[in-house]
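Onboarding guide, step 5: your first structure request.
Type a short instruction followed by the sequence, for example:

Predict the 3D structure of this protein.
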Amino acid sequence: MPTAQIRGATIHYEIIGKDGPWLALTPGGRRGIDDVRRLAERVAAKGYRVVVHDRRNTGSSDVVLEGKDTEYEIWADDLFELLTQLKALPCWVSGRSSGCRMTTLFMLRHPEAVKGLILTGITGGAFACNRLAEGYYGQYIKAAEKGGMAAVCETEHFAELIKANPANRDRIMSMDVKRFIDSFTKWREPFFTGADLPMIGVSEAQLNSIKVPTLVVPGNDHTHDRPTGIKVGSMIPNAETYVLLPIDRDMDLNHEEWVEKEEELVAKMDDFMKKHAA
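The system replies with structure tokens like these:
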């Protein structure tokens, strides 16, 4: 897998597809390339070059557990630098859940780099904020408080990152526990303060400022509820909202139904991008 040196971190990436318009595609959660590979291959088969990458702190890329910006802002700027190195700008950008938050921040921080947005599985509201604050940051703060950085290494997520990239263990162990806790506490803060925003980390005024073609595909579970996605779509000028998952599910996450609907999603993405290509 190719790598690029991006702002102090080694980032693993792939380009799927040999020609056509560029699309940067980012998965949800802290998942890596493998989670989005099949979707990327299906999109590429429609005539696109799809860039997928392991964000720092995911997949096989380097672990870097601090920074002056939020983790999502860091991810957005990393992607901008990667796409700049690949000479892939301007391009379409798309992401689901955490990838959707990152994609939106990418647009707000680098509007000149974006042809259009495809936002799927948008997160917002108190349930999502509380659940994700704990899942992304709180559990690791507790591990560090209880057992130091060795305990962080033993958590499921970071153990997987070490398995994929053994040098990550030394990076984690070299970090001072207090610095780690301070960093993750700072990164967690937008989730605690963002419950009243239409989308985690993004205000209504920021959504109103988006001028590029935008496709919004809401989710249908408690973390990615349909009303949040529809509301966000209504705040982006001239956005198109497409309800892929019409039945609301009483569950925290509904990843499987996204997989079942992937062919329909790809057809909609292709139609949307071709419609706005001119």
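Each response can be followed by summary notes, for example: The longest strand covers residues 9-16.
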